[in-house]
Design goal:
The protein is an alpha/beta fold. It folds into two domains: about 70 residues, Transcription elongation factor, GreA/GreB, N-terminal domain (Helix Hairpins); about 70 residues, Transcription elongation factor, GreA/GreB, C-terminal domain (Chitinase A, domain 3), CATH 3.10.50. Helix content is about 40%, strand content about 25%. The strands form two sheets. It has a five-stranded mixed β-sheet. Strand 3 and strand 4 form a beta hairpin. Helix 1 runs antiparallel to helix 2. The longest helix is centred in the N-terminal third of the chain and has 30 residues. The protein is elongated and about 65 Å long.
Length: about 160
């Protein structure tokens, strides 16, 4: 994922720490693995038709791209701390539990900046339709937003952090 560096990158303190840890791991461990794979593939001879070599070089390019992205994001990122006085209001860094008013299911998610968003891990960007609909909501508020599947209706059950 290449971030759009013309936009401000907002991160939670936890998100910043996670990205810093990933960057250190990639530099310390993954770079060595890729270098070892390239060395191993080179030892097999003819590089023109050496699929292992070409795959290792492609992996090196991907790794270097991810490292560059992380370095740039961490350099320009603004760490946003949750205001102490807004414990009842959904904000960047809040963990919010909502109730789906159609299906009666409860869903818990954390509101994060766009670069650390990962819906599969319930990390929802504050710039996504759901995230932006949640910002500023309080416990008990009902809201709706337009998702690809249509209008979704929720009620805020709890807000932590």
């Amino acid at each position: 994922m290449t971030p759009n560096m013309s936009n401000e990158v907002l991160l939670t303190k936890e998100g910043h720490a996670k990205l810093t840890e990933e960057l250190e791991y990639l530099k310390r461990v993954e770079k060595q693995k890729v270098a070892d794979n390239i060395r191993e593939a080179k030892s097999h001879g003819d590089l023109k038709e050496n699929a292992a070599y070409h795959e290792a070089k492609l992996n090196q390019q991907r790794l270097e791209g991810r490292i560059a992205d992380l370095e740039q994001v961490l350099q320009i990122a603004t760490i946003v701390e949750r205001p102490h006085h807004s414990g009842n209001v959904a904000h960047l860094g809040s963990t919010v539990t909502v109730k789906d008013l159609t299906w009666n299911d409860e869903i818990q998610m954390k509101l994060v900046g766009g670069f650390e968003a990962d819906p599969s891990q319930d990390l929802i960007s504050i710039t996504s339709p759901l995230g932006s609909a949640l910002i500023g909501k309080e416990v008990g508020d009902e809201f709706e937003y337009e998702a690809p599947a249509g209008i979704q209706k929720y009620k805020v059950v709890s807000i932590d952090g």
